[in-house]
Design a protein that fits this description.
By secondary structure, the protein is α/β, with parallel strands linked by helices. The protein folds into 2 domains: about 290 residues, Zn peptidases (Aminopeptidase, 3-Layer(aba) Sandwich), CATH 3.40.630; about 110 residues, Alpha-Beta Plaits (2-Layer Sandwich). It contains 12 helices and 15 strands. The strands form 3 sheets. Strands 2, 3, 4, 6, 7, 8, 13, 14 and 15 form a 9-stranded mixed β-sheet that branches. A 4-stranded antiparallel β-sheet has the order 10-11-9-12, covered by helices on one side. The protein has a two-stranded antiparallel sheet with strand order 1-5. β2 and β3 form a beta hairpin. It is globular, with a radius of gyration of 22 Å. The two termini are about 25 Å apart. The model has no long low-confidence stretch (mean pLDDT about 100). The protein binds (2S)-amino(hydroxy)ethanoic acid and manganese (II) ion (2 copies). The site of one manganese (II) ion has 3 residues, from loops.
Length: about 400
């Protein structure tokens, strides 16, 4: 299979040194990687189209093109200093699956469409699944046009400069646009490797949420301002960061996870009391009730900590999404395909979110997982072996074959 070389080549389109990958939305590395993928699709005889936000569609026309197609795919954007397999296995794996089906002279009735989703990662505009949110209609044009990056650039300016024009209202799909959606992805967790299982079949995708918190104190001279009168935004942020961890640990659900992934203080001088702090918090759970309870507890604690420390704060809820329940019939199809191929498989929950989270709001959806070495992901040492990748591709190929008749 050519996928192994193609994954390596794709990893070279990065703003950081190999083996790490950094590929942020609409940067030159992102655009070069997109162009590379499109060239591979055109080489394979697929028809490529791109929408106003940059979602890219590569279509293998079936004998009954009027029928809703079956879609597959994933993302190629990568958070800073991450790995070579998150998302890319699903994008290049979809292409490999189609090449395999063509090689056995299979002719699909329904068309098959690979989707390269724009910006599954939240890095550029602070919100994950930007492309699939818009495809599902969960994010409308008005809200999308308000998105700004950390340099204060608006989404519209950045996307049009990158060559993605057109009206954002044209992105949303109707419920009958696709017959179904299946995404191949690395597990990004330890379970498949630990239990020596080849294929994970996703039955549910956890409910993600993220918040941005700005803390405003008074700052001042590190020597001259005595402790009792300080309004130190940095220490308030540190207390909140610990509270984030405690709330997740104390939750009744073992699937409640919470992370303060960004914590900046200003003015960043050793002899200056932090005047401002800026936190980005990621809080998820497979169970929406315990996720929402954790969010409520966090909001109350932020209020109490800031009151006690005389700190002003601005709390912004960036996203607060429901979990996705995958389609049972599709899950069973993947399971029977894995059995046919003599692969071991297990039904499981995805703790990471994916574009499937939003595709499931419109279409019957499931995901095919392959093992992650050491359960590691979002790190340069993220790894899945060629054998594991090929089992994922074969499972996807025969699942697609089953679905498009
Ligand atoms: O954060 C996630 O779950 C995904 O990898 N963006
Ligand atoms: Mn990721
Ligand atoms: Mn991913």
């Amino acid at each position: 299979m050519k996928i192994h070389e193609e994954l390596k080549k794709l990893a070279t389109f990065s703003a950081s040194e190999n083996p790490s990958v950094t590929r942020i939305l609409y940067t030159k590395e992102d655009l070069a990687a997109r162009a590379y993928f499109i060239s591979l699709c055109e080489e394979a005889g697929l028809k490529v189209t791109v929408d106003a936000i940059g979602n890219t569609f590569a279509r293998w026309e079936g004998t009954q093109p009027e029928l809703p197609a079956v879609a597959t795919g994933s993302h190629i954007d990568a958070i800073p200093l991450s790995g070579q397999y998150d998302g890319t296995v699903g994008v290049l794996g979809s292409l490999e699956a189609i090449r395999y089906l063509k090689s056995i002279n299979f002719v699909p009735k329904r068309s098959i469409e690979i989707i390269l989703f724009t910006a599954e990662e939240p890095t550029r505009f602070f919100i994950g699944c930007l492309g699939s949110r818009m495809l599902s209609g969960q994010l409308q044009r008005e809200a999308a046009e308000k998105l700004k990056d950390s340099n204060g650039l608006f989404l519209n300016d950045v996307r049009t400069t990158a060559g993605f024009t057109g009206d954002l209202n044209s992105v949303a799909l109707s419920k009958d646009h696709y017959h179904a959606f299946v995404e191949l992805h690395i597990e990004q967790g330890p379970r498949l490797e630990k239990e020596k299982i080849d294929i994970g079949i996703v039955t549910k995708i956890a409910a993600p949420s993220s918040l941005r918190l700005k803390l405003i104190g008074e700052g001042g001279h590190a020597g001259a301002v005595l402790m009792p009168i300080r309004k130190d935004a940095g220490v308030a942020g540190a207390e909140i960061m610990q509270t984030v961890e405690r709330i997740a640990l104390e939750s009744k659900s073992e699937d409640t996870v919470a992370t303060t992934g960004i914590f900046d203080i200003l003015p960043r001088a050793v002899n200056s009391i932090p005047k401002e702090a800026y936190l980005e918090i990621d809080l998820r759970d497979t169970n929406i009730e315990t996720r929402n309870k954790a969010l409520d507890d966090l909001k109350k604690e932020v209020e109490a900590i800031c009151k006690r420390r005389n700190i002003q704060y601005i709390l912004e809820m960036v996203n607060c999404d429901p979990p996705a329940i995958c389609d049972e019939e599709l899950v069973n199809t993947v399971e029977s395909v894995a059995n046919e191929l003599n692969y071991t498989s297990k039904k499981m929950v995805s703790h990471a979110y994916h574009d499937s989270l939003f595709m499931a709001q419109l279409f019957p959806t499931t995901m095919i997982f392959i093992p992650s070495k050491g359960g590691v992901s979002h790190r340069p040492d993220e790894y899945s072996s060629p054998e594991e990748i090929e089992k994922g591709v074969m499972t996807l190929a025969l699942t697609l074959k089953e679905m498009v008749g």
